[in-house]
TrEMBL record:
GO terms for biological process: 'de novo' pyrimidine nucleobase biosynthetic process; formaldehyde assimilation via ribulose monophosphate cycle; L-ascorbic acid catabolic process. The lineage of its organism: Bacteria, Pseudomonadati, Pseudomonadota, Betaproteobacteria, Nitrosomonadales. It comes from Methylotenera versatilis (strain 301). This is 3-hexulose-6-phosphate synthase. It comes from the Bacteria. It is an enzyme of class 4 (lyase).
């Protein structure tokens, strides 16, 4: 059993709200993707928070510096999870963990571009990270990479932290990543690129929840 998260990666404010309206009943977590939050800011989070009280909301800040200071306004506005880059300074990562704890929320450390993912996972888990994000980014996917080997590596550490997996996951690979130990399964393009995003989200969630 894993939760599902839909990545909202459009830059368009109204289009994002419209897509979230279609998909929200069929996923556990709505993600405001990095380009989307940079373009639209905390106002979009406030709108989604008010419209979708039954979904958790992840804000994909991918924070690189000033962890506590950057993430606090988003937790204050209703984010349940904010992300911080694993390649950031440990002080930055601890800042996001601290502010998440202050609001009773969660911090996710994104392993994108981290060279030694096992060592980083152990370090940030010991620092109190709530979720480890195994992530093959859009540019890495374009170069042919997938998250599956990294997921196996992180899951094998058995550290008792939640593990999120993102990077081109679709219905056909959802059972594979669920069985490999992901507790949160992220899908972006597989849902927003589908002819029927609600049906695609429902299909992925049915597999993830099995
Ligand atoms: O985090 C993401 C990306 O780096 C842009 O910020 C995506 O939201 C994430 O990769 C999920 O999208 P898909 O890979 O299209 O499923």
């Amino acid at each position: 059993m894993a939760l599902t998260q839909m990545a909202l990666d459009s830059l368009d404010f109204d289009g994002t709200v419209a897509l979230a309206t279609l998909v929200a009943p069929h996923v556990d977590i709505l993600e405001i993707g990095t380009p989307c939050i940079k373009h639209n800011g905390v106002k979009l989070l406030e709108v989604l928070r008010a419209k979708f009280p039954n979904n958790k909301i992840l804000v994909d800040l991918k924070t690189m510096d000033a962890g506590f200071y950057e993430a606090e306004p988003f937790y204050k506005a209703g984010a349940d999870i904010c992300t911080v880059l694993g390649c950031a300074d440990i002080g930055t990562i601890k800042g996001v963990i601290d502010v998440a704890n202050k609001y009773g929320k969660k911090a996710q450390v994104d392993l994108i571009n981290v060279a030694d993912k096992a060592a980083k996972t152990k370090e940030v888990a010991a620092a109190g990270a709530h979720i480890i994000g195994v992530h093959t980014g859009l540019d890495q996917q374009a170069a042919g990479q997938t998250p599956f080997t990294d997921l196996a590596l992180v899951a094998a550490l058995n550290l008792g932290v939640e593990i999120s997996v993102a990077g081109g996951v679709k219905a056909a690979t959802t059972a594979q990543v669920r069985d490999a130990g992901a507790t949160i399964i992220v899908a972006g393009a597989a849902i927003y690129g589908a002819a029927d995003p609600a049906a695609s989200a429902a299909e992925i969630t049915a597999i993830a929840h099995a």
